[in-house]
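Is this the right way to post structure tokens for a design question? Let me know if I should format differently. Anyway, here goes:
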């Protein structure tokens, strides 16, 4: 149903807006599918979080992970159902794990150090990790997103060191680590994605 709605809207946009042609249809359609698909997905995740008594922590996980994902990128699944499942695991699973794990300070600092090194290495190598459907090709835009990825990951991990709330600290570590994994070539191979900059660059 979502695909049919997006196809119809794409045709109307192509026909009504000057400067758009058929070559842009796939890009417009994919953008519309992301936009329309994200709204119900957001409410589904919040509903699941409420039913699982994880509502507040799930909201916090959005604030932790979304800014980093927005700039660093990552793979996208090819079905809305798969996307809902994986996104739910990311935003609900992260606070769940964070609430049941109990690290002492030494382990916490070691994990933060590992996450810092791993995330910065992957950002340097892959971010922004785009897809062939929504490529990020302009060097200026890629550079801006890469810089912001470094800044957001770095600031959040520093917060994880000093924040007195262990669950939130754990959420930052897990959230940054898992989101960083979505940038990697292995994750792209498993989910059958391709980096847009490699396809079109």
């Amino acid at each position: 149903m979502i695909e049919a709605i997006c196809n119809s809207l794409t045709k109307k946009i192509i026909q009504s807006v000057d400067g758009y042609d058929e070559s842009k249809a796939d890009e417009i359609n994919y953008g519309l599918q992301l936009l329309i698909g994200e709204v119900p997905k957001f409410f589904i995740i919040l509903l699941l979080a409420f039913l699982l008594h994880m509502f507040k922590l799930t909201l916090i996980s959005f604030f932790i992970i979304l800014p980093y994902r927005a700039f660093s990128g990552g793979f996208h699944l090819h079905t809305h159902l798969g996307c809902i499942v994986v996104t739910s695991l990311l935003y609900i699973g992260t606070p769940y794990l964070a609430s049941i794990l109990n690290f002492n300070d030494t382990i916490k600092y070691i994990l933060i150090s590992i996450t810092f090194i791993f995330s910065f290495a992957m950002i340097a190598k892959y971010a922004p990790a785009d897809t062939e459907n929504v490529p990020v090709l302009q060097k200026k835009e890629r550079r801006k997103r890469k810089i912001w990825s470094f800044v957001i990951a770095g600031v959040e991990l520093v917060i994880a060191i000093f924040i007195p709330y262990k669950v939130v600290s754990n959420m930052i570590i897990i959230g940054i680590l898992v989101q960083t994994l979505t940038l990697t070539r292995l994750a792209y191979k498993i989910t059958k994605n391709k980096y847009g900059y490699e396809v079109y660059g």
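Format looks fine. Someone answered above. Worth noting: The first helix runs from residue 2 to 16. The chain has nine helices and no strands.
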